[in-house]
Structure formats: C-alpha cells, structure tokens
Amino acid sequence: MRFETLKILLESEGYECFNKGGSHYQFRKEECDLITIPFKRPIKAIYVKMVLKAITGE
C-alpha cells in the first residue's frame, strides 16, 4: 500500500496529519491513540494492520 492511500484513509476517518520535517508522520484524533507511520514506499504490512486495527477498534 502506498503512503498516500493510507494518509487518505486516516484523514477520512477524522485523523489529522502532522510532520515536523522528519521521515515519520503522526496522525492524531481526539480520544484515540497516536499513530506514527514512516514515509516509505511501500508501507510495511505491520503499519497497515496497525491502522486497520485503530479504525475498526479491534
């Protein structure tokens, strides 16, 4: 999965994207855990699973 696709998915779920100039992006949503994703192509499966778990609440 591409980083851009994962970013769109998280933003559609209400997460805000923050980057302070480094290689990692942080996604924040009120009342939810912080999600940190490295900007690499392709995104490793472990990060995709982490995002899906955060979105579905499982």
TrEMBL record:
SUPFAM superfamilies: YcfA/nrd intein domain (SSF54786). Gene3D superfamilies: Hypothetical protein. This is Type II toxin-antitoxin system HicA family toxin.
